[in-house]
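> @MW can you paste both from yesterday?
MW: sure, first one:
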Amino acid sequence: MTNPAPAKSIDSPPLTAYAVILAAIASMSSAAILIRLALGEDMPPVLIAVSRLFIATVILTPITLNKYWSDIKNLTRTEFILASISGIFLAIHFLAWVSSLQYTTVLVSVVIVTTGPIWVAILEVIFLRIRLSQLVIIGLIVALAGGIFIGLSGLGGNTESTQSAAEADTTMIGALLSWVGAVAVAVYMLIGRKLRATLPVIPYIWLVYGISTLAMMPIVLITSTPVLGFSFEGYLVLLAMGLIPQLIGHSSLNYLLEYFPATFVSMFTQLEPIGSAILAVIFFNELPPTHQVIGSGIIIFGVLLASRGKVTNSKGAS
């Protein structure tokens, strides 16, 4: 890139960055509602995962080609490779996480996927020489503890007879896929933090979403996933998913990477289940059980703690 703008200081993000945080949480929280509606139309999970990225890419294409093509052309070979890796890992995240729901419960899958911030923090420390303050670490642990509390409480309230060996193996496959999804999204967030220092958000997400879509296409072909023949309402749901949780939600997270470390940004996703629960009450009249309310409060407290801490590089600069 020629004469890249310096990265914004993470000590003084603009007020709009905090407004984007709220928009990101609200938009991403709608994903669970839209997925339920799409599954209700008998749409396969792989199609749902691919569609949200494909739709976002198509919408961003004319904007990118008209206003940001010079940014794409000026990408160095290293930057393009990093963006490609980011897109591939985003595809791995969606495919692994969605596939895990075919083998294990939503509860187990979500609890494992929410370990993503841990992997982001570890990768930032290793590759970006980021140093986390004690308050950030404590907040991260508290937020993750809230998710674990929700998971363990839910499992404890649904005891059954001992699983058969086959059922245990199936659950293990689901847990492994969830873990792959958590690590993959951590890599995606980490690379995004690096590239967003020099590349504007629109050409970056267009490139990453497009590569991610292309990476998923062979999976669609190999699994013979049907694309046509579903209801008109189902396709409207897919359109909404591409517009709201993907284009607004995930894109907002990429915007925030310009102002906050990836560890902190990844913690915002910890609030997604809370927003989803609120929307479930509104759309499906589903009241969350007490343990989910308590766990959600713990998560919020952890995010607030982390937001009060500092993240510095190895030289001590904030």
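MW: second:
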Amino acid sequence: MNLFDRFKNGFVLLGNSFSVMRANPRLLLFPAATAALTCVIGLLFMTPIVFQPSQHGYRTAEHWAEVGSRLVVASEPDAIDLMKGRKQHYALSKQALAYFALAYFLSMFLATFFNVAFVHEIFDALDGNPVSVAEGIQFALTKIKPILMWTLFAGVVGLLIKALEERFGFFGRWVVRLIGTAWSVASVFVIPVLVLDERAENPIEAVKLSAGVIRKAWGEALAGYAGLQIGGVIVVTSLFVVGGLAGWAGWASQSFAPFIAGMLAWLAFAFAFTYALGVAGQIYLCVLYRYATAGTVPPGYTPEMLGSAWTPKKA
């Protein structure tokens, strides 16, 4: 299959994933619920930080300065600070570290929890069963232990990668970033593994199973998924034409109204399409996972279509 045919196949896969989404519109609720709960958790954790007692009123600059001094501690510069020309070393206080660590792990837990519910319902949709937010959440509740174990494991790995990236120089940062990329790739199918594989209670085993799926069928490239993403990029990029035409119309008419209207329409469409594309991408990943592990092809897809996306490595 040449490059053009691969991209064409990606657009077909994109259309099929959107078809599954249109037939099961409740799938669109899961990412929104995750984002909303993450924002709520963030506000709940920020409130006691912002409104902690001080010697000043909440509306005064002195209050915010005191709150800031409790969160960030200044000390003598270390070798790295001196090398970068900084006169003081700034670090988060124990209070701030405790708050942010708890918020970080809790937000990761909620994201994983709702992704497990989301992916479970995607598999239900692919099987022709009705999608239910309540059933997805009930299923995720049965996976609390593996979700918690994965959250702790992935959270610690993420913090270690970030800490190492900040400590090394330019070359070291690139090496750490490559490690981070390899980690991200290896964990692509962790959520489907958590949903369908009973061995996933061990987070290390979950990563191994996810990486095993990739090694088994990814080969040189995931052409169909790349085509799906490129299709989205092309559509979103083409929306810049709207901004250009709106700007030209505004200049020609000596009015900002067409430009503002065009940009608002562009932003609304870009947000809606990007959101829907994220859901369609998750559907496609679930289709690929099932095809790679069980060899089953959902309605609307063909073995040839998926086989062009997954190029198995030759022994």
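> thanks! The CA atoms of residues 22 and 204 lie 36 Å apart.
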